[in-house]
Design a protein that fits this description.
single chain, alpha/beta, two-stranded parallel ribbon, globular
Length: 175
Amino acid sequence: SEIEIAESNHNLTNQLLMGLEKLTPGFFVHANSIHSGNNSAFGQSKAEMSQKIRQKCEELGWKYFDVKFPNIFGERARPLHNSFIATVIASLQKNEGYEVLDNPIELVSAHEAAKYLLDLCTNEGVKDFKSEKTTVGEVIKILELFHATYRNDFIPELADLFRLKLFNAYRFNMG
């Protein structure tokens, strides 16, 4: 439930803050969510967590970065947990149906997100991460095309870097 998620976020934050006191100050890079601060219990808890961490970092002399990522996709995502893409791939693999809510969505690959976070700690002139603005329906159409092509032992056309990253997620999550 949302209340359990919020409670879990608070507990994890408190554990993290206790641990920070035992470390030598450095960089603290918080990979946050674009949902931070929205009206949901999850969003409110993410915003509160971010503020607590920022305050503790300032108190202890840490350099703090709060990065609000859109939806992250890639290898090792868990179906029914942290990625609709992984959920659709698992459904395709099991030949199960799924419901499509064709909403606009912004995606960033896990590799792009990780590179950005590392760059924050090492570069002064860090550029924004690259994200893809699309729709859930368009992503699902691409995944269905990948599935129809790849299960017949062919590599689908990978017209751009986004499709290549999406295909890598597809292949990895297909097992």
